[in-house]
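hey so i finaly got around to running the thing on DUF7852 domain-containing protein from Bacillus thuringiensis. pasting the sequence first so u can double check i didnt mess up the copy paste, my clipboard has been acting weird all day
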Amino acid sequence: MMMNKPWRGKGMGHKIYKIKELNIHDNLSQKVKKEEKLISKSAIGSSVRSMIVKTPFSIISEVCNFRRIPNINEKNQEEFVFRNEENKSRRELEAKLLNTVYNYYGEIYCRLVSSNLHEKRVLLEYPTQKAMGTIEDDGIETALWVPIHSVELDKKSKVELNNYIIAKLPVEIGKYKTEISIRENVVFREKVMGIKEVSQDIVLTKNEILLPQKIKTGQNLVIVENGSLFIEGYILQCIEYIIEEGTFCENVYQLMQSIVLELVVQILQEQEVRVEIT
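ok and heres what it spat out for the 3d tokens, dont ask me to read them lol
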């Protein structure tokens, strides 16, 4: 009669308990695995980081074809050669009378009129072991200053004025344009998913116009027709980029930028000019 009720046999109760216990452990392990997957998925996310990059540049090149001749500090010297009466105790080799006059004018200065940036940006990914030989160095190439000012106003200013006053005003000596080619490489140590935004500004730290000394000897006046313009500054960039969090970064990420910076600079000086009274 025992065969009709197999669950009443020896050891069957223990077997049923073991099966139930195994099912409970399986459910717990599956639950733990699901929780681990959820935790790992939530740990892998993205966030936005920012980086400040300063890219320096400088140019020194000749400027010529001035729109208006600059007034620079000049020295006017007169000399008279003469001979003193003979003196038996000494021999006179040379005797001169000198008269030197220095004229000082307003400072010549530069002003940044406009800037234009032409850019090509490429985000690259390198294996770490190959990054050292692959990443390029930064570089800069400069061009010449090209005059872009007009001479039409100067032609009008040469017309005789009958009714005028003399005023001291800033006048344009010239306006010049140049292009500077820059190669900038930014290396990231995190896993970069993309570049969100790049904001930038042009900052000039130094500008100087270098002109030769103007010397007037007697009636011979040397007119300055050219000089050198020196500009120094940097491109200030704030790079916002998206990184992947919670993963190990095996590669190196690089933002390669090819930039052509176009600058227009105005050279000014305060001079006395005739202003027509109407």
